Each structure stands twice: as structure tokens, then as C-alpha cells.
UniProtKB/TrEMBL annotation:
Signal peptide boundaries: none
Protein name in the entry: 3-phosphoshikimate 1-carboxyvinyltransferase
Lineage: Bacteria, Bacillati, Bacillota, Bacilli, Bacillales
Pathway: Metabolic intermediate biosynthesis; chorismate biosynthesis; chorismate from D-erythrose 4-phosphate and phosphoenolpyruvate: step 6/7
Annotated binding of phosphoenolpyruvate, by residue: 36, 107, 136, 184, 358, 399, 424
Record field: catalytic activity: 3-phosphoshikimate + phosphoenolpyruvate = 5-O-(1-carboxyvinyl)-3-phosphoshikimate + phosphate
SUPFAM superfamilies: EPT/RTPC-like (SSF55205)
Compartments, record wording: Cytoplasm
Residue span(s) of domain Enolpyruvate transferase: 32-433
EC number, UniProt record: 2.5.1.19
Subunit structure: Monomer.
Sorted UniProt keywords: Amino-acid biosynthesis, Aromatic amino acid biosynthesis, Cytoplasm, Transferase
Entry similarity comment: Belongs to the EPSP synthase family.
Length: 445
């Protein structure tokens, strides 16, 4: 609740009651909003840049609201005119030298912004987050930034937000950083590195949970005219001193959000075309379309769009590591009961430190629906079954809510508590799903 913003919807709604569509879904054209991950990276690089940026198709959700809010508190000019957002670059010197910042529940703000503050000599900032964000780890980032010369103090609990940052020109130099808990720590060090006094060499000794997000960081840095050198194995990165330059660009569609309508069509045996999602996107969750193909759906990935024809019965009987597209691990878990054989998900221990402990949350929820699930440290096995109606908490986690809503495509009477948490990345989720045919009844206090 603390992380809801003026861009969230469903104020006062305590429950969403869901019933299956009357017939199969036939949605010839579906447009998905801009990517959260790209929007927040672009906002931050634009704010650091020399010169202004004009950004089209930016996502408007809680995560991106709190990113812009933090930038405005830092004195950045961000004007919204129609579809575009114009951000005045600061050249890396924040106009407000002292400020209290709030990241909402956004990992992309909490992990990317601290480095950009830490390097600005003489500033004094405090960053706080929502209750769920305060539970999430931040120590690997703080340790790496400290190795570059940053002065960051935990204001409350060691390793967690809130933090206090005393700006000091960062040295750069050699930094070693773990990528096994979150790729965002590495992205957070990369984005700040060009503003260090010397070259920064970042070594990741233990692998990165979701490589693709680091690639997105690097490609956007390059779009803002800062080159990054790295090896094929993504274990060493070198960034030379340089400054971002303002750009005019349009944010690509959010592949993670697109997975819910795709899964919905898969479950209802319908057809959907996500008209603005380019299958060549770097976002890892595009891989979910391939996964649905493996489960028996027909998938088209041509012509700059993603098409899907649902299967009469989804195929299970496989084990899959969801490490590289772990935001969709619980989407897969939610549709897995409708497959013809068990599905085993591995490689996602790190999602226990996302917006909630997602493995525990989905296992508990499926259990309440009467589905047999074997929980393991790094994943779970979901057995086929017919879920029964139930009242389900959503753990203040947008993806738990959106994944569980999919079960409503097949089971009458699923009741989701606090459905408004979807606004972290997709405030229009329930309107969108009802346009697909899901029957949604919203209940207020
Ligand atoms: O960098 C990013 O934009 C993201 C990285 C991933 O986080 P982790 O690397 O922490 O798993 C992903 O789950 C999150 O939704 C967005
Ligand atoms: C893990 C997620 O978000 P965040 O950017 O807060 O890490 C997510 O969107 O699933």
C-alpha cells in the first residue's frame, strides 16, 4: 500500500472476484505499455546526461512514478506533455544538494539511483523504500560502491534501506561484485561508472541471475553514448570516464506484462496478437512465448509482433530452469496445474528476495486452491489438478496478483485480495484482462 502512487488505480478496492470468459479469447490486436526496466534506466540516464532528453511511450506505473518523483526531489526538470516526457539533464550534479528520496517498491530505483548520488561531491541524501523494498537486499551494491570510494551508511538495519549517502567523487578502479542474488547490483554499478574519476573494472566471480537485464543496461548506456567493454562470458566489464548525452527515444513494449495476456490466451484456447512487442527485444521474458510453444501453443514471432494460438490442452512433463526469465517463474507455476503432466521449475532461489518470497507465495496459493505442489529452495514441482475457488492474498506483489488472476480464466470464483498492487508495473491490468473476456468484479470497502 505504501508504494501506491498517483499513477496507481483501484483505490479503495479490496477484492477482485474473477470468472472465466464466456468463450475463447480472440484479440486480434493488443498493445502493451512501455517497459518498466527500460523506462527507469532511461529516466536515470537522461537525468545524469548533458542536454535534454525527450522520451516517448514511457510506462506510467508506481515504479516509474517513484523514479520520476525521486528525480524531481533532486531538482531535475521533468515535464510531461501529452505522450512525451522531457527530462532536463543535470550533467551529473544534482541541483538539490540535500533531499529525502522515496523509491516506492521499485528495485530499479533502489539499486540504480544510489550510485548516481554517491558520486556527486558535497550532496547529502537519504533513500527510503516501501515496507517490501526495505526487506530486499542492497548490501552487494553498497559494498561495491564503497570500494569505488562511496560513503554510504545504513540508517537503520545493516544491508537494508534506508541508507544515507554523502556524495564524494568516486574513484573507479577494480570492483568485485556478486551477481547471484540480483543482476540489479551490477546494473547499478555500471550506470554510475562513467562518472568515476578513473576507469572502472567490474568483475563478477559467481555468475549473474538474469544476464539479459545487464545487457539492457549496457545497450542503453551505449544509446546514451557511453561505451562498455565486456567479455563474452559477462564476467568482466570495463567503463572509462565519460558522460551521458541527452537523447530522443521511444520506450519499447514491456515483455513481462505481455506474458499475462499471452498466458490467458494459452489457457482459454484463444488467439492473441501483441502488436507492439518486437520478438527481437533483449527483455528476457520474451522467452515465455517459446515456453508456451513448448507447452503446445502455436506461436508466431514474425513481423515485429508476437502471436499466439492457445492449445486445447497444455503440455507438461518437463523440468525447466527459469533463472534467466525469473519474473515469469510464478506465471508458469500459475498455469501449470492446467497442463497434462507435472512441471518442475528450478534455478530461481533469488525470487525469494523479490517483492515477496515468490516461491513460498505461489506454493501457498496453489495449495489453497487444492493443487499439489512440492516446494524446494530454488523452485517447485506443480502437479496437474482442477483448482477450486478460494480467497487469495496477493502478498503486495504485482506478479503474484497477475499470475493468480490467470487461474480465473478457467476457475469461477477466484477472489484476489488487494488487487491494486498490480499498479507497480501495470495499473490497467484488470481493465485489460476484462477486455480479453475475463469477468472481473471489483469490490470496495
Ligand atoms: O534490471 C531490471 O530491470 C530487472 C532485473 C531483474 O531483477 P533481478 O536481477 O533482481 O532478479 C528483474 O527481476 C526485474 O523485474 C527487473
Ligand atoms: C522483481 C521485480 O521488480 P523490481 O524491479 O522491483 O526488482 C518485478 O517486476 O518482478
Amino acid at each position: 500500500m505504501e508504494a501506491r502512487s498517483p499513477w496507481s488505480g483501484l483505490q479503495g478496492v479490496v477484492e477482485a472476484e474473477l470468472h472465466p470468459p464466456v468463450g475463447p479469447v480472440h484479440q486480434p490486436e493488443w498493445i502493451v505499455a512501455g517497459s518498466k526496466s527500460v523506462t527507469n534506466r532511461v529516466f536515470l540516464m537522461a537525468a545524469m546526461a548533458d542536454g535534454s532528453s525527450v522520451i516517448g511511450n514511457a510506462l506510467r506505473s508506481d515504479d516509474t512514478y517513484w523514479c520520476l518523483d525521486a528525480l524531481r526531489r533532486l531538482g531535475v526538470k521533468a515535464d510531461i506533455t501529452g505522450e512525451d516526457i522531457r527530462i532536463g539533464g543535470t550533467g551529473g550534479a544534482w541541483p538539490n544538494r540535500k533531499a529525502d528520496l522515496y523509491a516506492g517498491a521499485a528495485g530499479t530505483v533502489a539499486r540504480f539511483l544510489p550510485g548516481l548520488l554517491a558520486g556527486d561531491e558535497g550532496g547529502l541524501w537519504r533513500m527510503e523504500g516501501s515496507r517490501s523494498l526495505r526487506e530486499r537486499p542492497i548490501a552487494p551494491l553498497v559494498t561495491a560502491l564503497s570500494a569505488m570510494g562511496a560513503e554510504i551508511r545504513y540508517a537503520d538495519e545493516e544491508g537494508k534501506l534506508p541508507i544515507e549517502i554523502a556524495g564524494k567523487r568516486l574513484r573507479g578502479g577494480a570492483v568485485s561484485l556478486s551477481g547471484s542474488v540480483s543482476s540489479q547490483f551490477l546494473s547499478g554499478v555500471l550506470v554510475t561508472s562513467p562518472y568515476a574519476a578513473e576507469e572502472t573494472e567490474i568483475v563478477v566471480p559467481d555468475g549473474i541471475v538474469q544476464h539479459a537485464y545487464v545487457r539492457i543496461t549496457i545497450e542503453l548506456m551505449e544509446r546514451f553514448e557511453v561505451p562498455v567493454t565486456h567479455g563474452d562470458r559477462f564476467d568482466r566489464f570495463v567503463v572509462r570516464p565519460r558522460r551521458y548525452r541527452g537523447q530522443t527515444l521511444s520506450i519499447e513494449a514491456d515483455a513481462s506484462t505481455a506474458c499475462y495476456p499471452l498466458a490467458f490466451a494459452a489457457l482459454t484456447g484463444g488467439y492473441i496478437r501483441i502488436a507492439n512487442l518486437d520478438p527481437r527485444t533483449r527483455q528476457p521474458d520474451i522467452g515465455f512465448a517459446e515456453l508456451l510453444r513448448r507447452m503446445g501453443c502455436r506461436v508466431g514471432l514474425d513481423g515485429g509482433a508476437v502471436e499466439l494460438w492457445g492449445a486445447p490442452r497444455l503440455r507438461g512433463g518437463f523440468e525447466i530452469s527459469m533463472k534467466e526469465m525469473s519474473d515469469q517463474a510464478i506465471t508458469l507455476a500459475a498455469i501449470a496445474p492446467f497442463a497434462d503432466a507435472p512441471i518442475t521449475i528450478t534455478g530461481v532461489a533469488h525470487i525469494r528476495t523479490h517483492e515477496c518470497d515468490r516461491i513460498a507465495a505461489i506454493c501457498e496459493s496453489l495449495g489453497k486452491l487444492g493443487i499439489r505442489v512440492d516446494e524446494r529452495e530454488d523452485g517447485m514441482t506443480i502437479h496437474p489438478g482442477i483448482p477450486s475457488a478460494a480467497v487469495l492474498p496477493t502478498y503486495d506483489d504485482h506478479r503474484v496478483a497477475m499470475s493468480l488472476a490467470l487461474i480465473g480464466a478457467r476457475v469461477p470464483g477466484i477472489r484476489l485480495l488487494d488487487p491494486g498492487c498490480v499498479s507497480k508495473t501495470c495499473p490497467t491490468f484488470f481493465d485489460d484482462m476484462s477486455r480479453l473476456g475475463l469477468q472481473v468484479r471489483l469490490h470496495s470497502v
